[in-house]
Design a protein that fits this description.
2 domains; Rossmann fold; binds magnesium ion; OB fold (Dihydrolipoamide Acetyltransferase, E2P); 24% helix; binds adenosine-5'-diphosphate; 6-stranded antiparallel β-sheet; 6-stranded mixed β-sheet; alpha+beta; 35% strand; 8 helices
């Protein structure tokens, strides 16, 4: 039982509260991703689990034991940071084993664990090298190796791939997924990148301003977001949001001159309609102007503008890309329209 539970966890810096009572269950072996905009409290929460930040109130339980006041070293966790800070004068092997050496592990035990971690991370050919002779991705693997040799019950990652270039980031993302699969360890992974969250997570926790907005499997958050914030944060390109008015038989969208046949009865008639770019189609018409066309080859992101200035992104197949300056209309599948309260952003469901 090496899961993690957070119970009404609160963090205050002086009089400023930044984490406002978070409840969360992370199951044994789960890869749980904290995602949210910069400053929402992801690192703070992770550092509280690690014991690097004091928990002001509430309880943190790891593997069944209350560790709220325990030292970081007593928690059975290992953390991997964005900046991997390897010792430049030590070899890869020495860097990985250094923590164990400091805690007095026997030399043979250290050698055995370093060898095992190097095998898992495919670092065996580099054990005698200095960090400066490694690529960015290899250095980050050494930083992960430093965590693995400690045999933690929980791995904590704080934006470990943010310093890598785009190509390497995708590669390392797959490696971390593979690592999780092969070790079956509990992992908590912080990122501001929703693509990383979608691809890696068993469970995503969407945070905003120190509170949990929603917890769920990646596809559940994509298909069934609980509010406008989550709907807009998960999915790429972002969901389009249009102002609408409820009327008999559906919601009128003045910007598009269309009625979406999805009945709803909001208190004052105002509705925000959310439409994913992937759920829209381009149809012949004159309603919208095509502004920017981003053709990625397989898919194309078509940025359109309505006469009233409303902007809308439609995803099409690359070969179907229209030209900038063309006139189009959009086809809407009412079953794929999400409705939100324009005031608080809560999801509105059915009549
Ligand atoms: N040592 C500190 N003192 C005061 N406020 C802090 C401190 N560290 C972080 N904060 C505040 O806590 C909030 C959450 O920060 P952080 O957890 O680093 O966000 P994230 O990792 O999601 O970008 C921010 O508003 C930040 O300014
Ligand atoms: Mg952070």
């Amino acid at each position: 039982m090496t899961g993690v539970s957070l119970e009404r966890v609160i963090k205050r810096y002086g009089t400023t509260q930044v984490i406002h009572g978070v409840d969360l269950e992370i199951a044994e072996g789960e890869l749980c991703v904290f995602v949210g905009p910069s400053g929402c409290g992801k690192s703070t929460l992770l550092r509280m689990i690690a014991g690097l930040e004091e928990t002001t109130d509430g309880r943190i339980v790891i593997a069944g034991a209350d560790v709220t006041r325990a030292d970081p070293a007593e928690r059975g966790v290992a953390m991997v940071f964005q900046t991997y800070a390897l010792y430049p004068h030590m070899t890869v092997g020495e860097n990985m084993g250094f923590g164990l050496k400091m805690t007095g592990h026997p030399r043979e035990e250290i050698a055995r664990r370093v060898k095992e971690a190097a095998r898992v991370l495919q670092l065996e050919p580099y054990l005698a090298r200095k960090p400066k002779a490694l690529s960015g991705g290899q250095r980050q693997r050494v930083a992960i190796g430093r965590a693995i040799v400690r045999h933690p019950s929980v791995f904590l990652f704080d934006e470990p791939l943010s310093n890598l270039d785009a190509e390497l980031r995708v590669e390392m993302r797959v490696e971390i997924a593979r690592l999780h699969k092969s070790m079956g360890a509990t992992m908590v992974y912080v990122t501001h990148d929703q693509v990383e969250a979608m691809t890696l997570a068993d469970k995503i926790v969407v945070l905003r301003a120190g509170r949990i907005e929603q917890v769920g499997a990646p596809i559940a958050l994509y298909e069934d977001p609980g509010n406008r914030f989550v709907a807009g944060f998960i999915g790429s390109p972002s969901m389009n949001f249009l102002e609408g008015r409820a009327e008999a038989g559906g919601v009128a969208l003045p910007a598009l001159g269309q009625v979406v046949a999805t009945p709803v009865r909001p208190p004052d008639g105002a509705v925000t309609v959310g439409l994913r770019p992937q759920d829209l189609t381009l149809v012949p018409g004159e309603g919208l102007g095509v502004d920017i066309v981003e053709n990625l080859g397989s898919v194309c992101h078509v940025h359109c503008q309505a006469p009233d200035g409303t902007r809308l992104v439609v995803e099409t197949r690359g070969v179907d890309a229209p030209r900038s300056g063309a006139r189009v209309d959009v086809g809407i599948d009412p079953a794929r329209a999400y409705l939100f309260d324009p005031h608080g952003g809560a999801r509105l469901r059915g009549p």
